[in-house]
Amino acid sequence: MQKAREVMNVKGLESAGLVLPEPLKKTVFDLPSEEKMNIEEIRLRAMRPATICLSGGYERKLFYLGQPCVVSPNDLQELMENATKSSIHSYSHSIASGFLTLEGGHRMGICGTCVQKGGQIVSVGDYSSVNIRIAKEYKGISDGILQQLLSGGEFENTLVISPPGLGKTTLIRDLIRNLSTPGPAAGQGYRISVADERCEIFPHKDGVPQFDPGDKTDVISGAAKAEAIMLLLRAMSPQIIAIDEITCTEDSEAILAAQNCGVRFIATAHADHVGDLCSREAYMKLMSNHYFKHIVSISVHKGKRMYRLQNFGGMEHV
Amino acid sequence: MFKMLGIVMIVCSCTAMGFLASSRLSLRIKSLGELIMALEIAESEIFFKLSPIPQIMKSAANATGGGVREMFLELYQKTNIVSSSTFSEKWLSVLKKSQDRLGLSPGDIEVLSELSTFLGRYDAERQTNSLAYIRRRLETALADAEEEQKSKGKIYRALGAASGLIIAISFF
Questions:
Q1: For residue A206, which residues of chain B lie inside 8 Å, CB to CB?
Q2: A312 pLDDT exceeds 60?
Q3: pLDDT 10s digits, B24-63
Q4: Which residues in chain B have their CB less than 8 angstroms from residue A85's CB?
Q5: How many Å apart are CA B145 and CA B29, to the nearest integer?
Q6: Is A18 on the interface with B (CB under 8 A)?
Q7: Which of A197, A208, A225, B43 has the fewest other C-beta atoms within 10 Å?
Q8: Which fold has domain A143-317?
Q9: Which residues of A fall within a CB distance of 8 Å from B75?
């Protein structure tokens, strides 16, 4: 299992690295396998050395022929050309939102000079920084907690929390796949709708999903979560709605409104612990009503991810 | 006998040269017509569908024929893979390679080369405006080419045959 994951990580990195300009591409591809499988991000900043971020938060410079790989503005331009297949216009909406989805589901964050029209960002030019985040799909990581999220065979509202970069999206992705696929735990499988505002849970490239969403999953991408939730309720009659990152009160109000339709939710939040959320306006109503019956917190212990399940009855499973 | 054969060969080859010069004018007209159609398709693909460049090249290839189709098919194959060369470089190299096959004039190539400066680089509105501008210039070139064919096409053919006959008579 571990070996398969390592191979998958290296493959993921290599598919993301295809868009890099030379000699950066060669530098990344020539890294030792044990380092490649731990790379989570590749960061390029104009006129600064390119860096890689490894599991655990360590960031180091990349070297080519003994010299730091300094990124030129032309490198960033070439990277954008590769990432968009020379078609900036086709991705203008996504670029204006600050990111691009690469083949393989990898997410490329973009910084530069924003162009505004009517108070709205319509484009980004003069690229100054790019962050390629290597997407990962670990099938089976939610197997250990799935059963405990079901009460009497029914799924209950669940929130996944952790600090950034610990794998909330990876876990929620596998949970969705598991829940929507018929099996011993999920029975016939739940009809799940995903409001994927940032195209991060189930990114698609030219209409092709880059990860396995399960048998009964419908995904709407690019729309604001509150709007997408209402749209999904009307159009797809889901049993469960999944969203990444509750960020504003509109999101939590939409969740509470959907509660009246009998829909259950899986969501994620950036937080160290539950206490963090209780003081945030966006979560106050949800937390005070004990809306989420299960909180899954992710932590890293000796390089391994741990999932701690907290039921709002006080029970804890690790 | 050999003299007669030589005369026939001279007449035939001169006539063929005249027809060749005339058919080159026809080829240019055909290619310009196909290219104008391809640019119209590119404008629609960008304006209505925001299609990426490889898709545009494929649609243009599907809608055209002959050398223009081959040119867009090659561009589709080249743009559909990630490589170290830019779209601009790919466009210019394929265009240069296709010049003879399409019978285009250096002026036509110059106009088409300008596509490399904006295609795929800017927002949809700017690209469709620039494509329309290039298309209008090709339409002007097409009108000129048709005029040239009317005035020179027959002359080339007649001149070819006549020059063959003159050479033959001078030998005779």
A1: 52
A2: yes
A3: 788 999 999 999 999 999 999 999 988 999 999 999 999 9
A4: 52-54, 79-80, 82
A5: 6
A6: yes
A7: A208
A8: Rossmann fold (3.40.50)
A9: none
Instruction: Give the closest residue to A110 by CA, choosing from A141, A133, A136.
Output: A133
Provide the residue ranges of all domains of chain A, joining segments of one domain with +: 2-133, 143-317
Q: Is the peptide bond before A23 cis (omega within 30 degrees of 0)?
A: yes
Sequence-distant contacts of A249-255: CB under 8 A, at least 24 apart: A249/A281, A249/A282, A250/A224, A250/A225, A250/A226, A251/A225, A251/A226, A251/A282, A252/A282, A252/A283, A252/A285, A252/A286, A253/A226, A253/A285, A254/A225, A254/A226, A254/A229, A254/A230, A255/A229, A255/A286, A255/A291
A276 phi/psi in degrees, rounded to 5: -55, -40
- Enter the ipTM: 0.73
**If you search the block for the tokens 């829940």, which residue do you land on?**
A179
Report domain extents, chain B. 29-151
Cβ atoms A43, A51 nearer than 8 A: yes
Structure pTM?
Answer: 0.73
- Is A26 within 8 Å of chain B by CB? no
What share of chain B in percent tops pLDDT 90?
A: 51
